[in-house]
Amino acid sequence: MSLVNTTNENTQNSSNSTKYVIIALVIIIIILVATVGYFALANNSNANADTSSKNPATSQVSSSQGSSGEVSTESVSSSSSPSKSWVNIGSYSGSGSGSQVIDVPAGEIKVELSAYPIKNYATNHLYVSGSNGQSGGVDWGSTSAVETRSDSFSYSSSSSQTFTIDYYETVEWQVNFYRYQ
């Protein structure tokens, strides 16, 4: 065997080894890209499933606006999933003095309210009372601190109820109705 033949064999063996290394690297890269893509698609489909299960259908709370105050009825979810949660079915806010009458649908209902007074008069208040006898509210005495006060209550009813929101001398107030669904 000559020196030239040995050199050609070494070059050929080196060339074959390089090909195998390149092929192995390409296969590893393809596997990594496929794995990352799979997990990215799985996370994206889970996020879409969460979003779609939260907003499949909507219903609204009916309301009639009082002398001053803003009314916003919000869309709510009617999810077919077995897990239930408190869903906002109506949000009402305003300032000053006045009252509003609203209709709340049947079901398990939670009412959260808060208000901030103009001054600490003995008559500042925010009261929410229903035709079913349920009520809650906040008020301030003449020596009370001028601060935000909150209250909440819940009830269950098989029929819709009418609620009155009564507010006097407030800088701002807010009442939220939630239904367990």
Give a verbal description of the structure.
It is built from one helix and eight strands. It is α+β, with helices and mostly antiparallel strands and 181 residues long. Strand 5 and strand 6 form a beta hairpin. It is elongated and about 105 Å long. The termini are far apart. Mean pLDDT is 80; it is low at 51-68.
Concise summary:
The protein has 181 residues and is an alpha+beta fold. The chain has one helix spanning 3-54; strands at residues 63-64, 70-72, 86-104, 107-117, 125-130, 135-139, 149-157, 161-180. The longest helix is centred in the N-terminal third of the chain and has 52 residues, at 3-54.
Characteristic key phrases:
alpha+beta, 29% helix, 41% strand
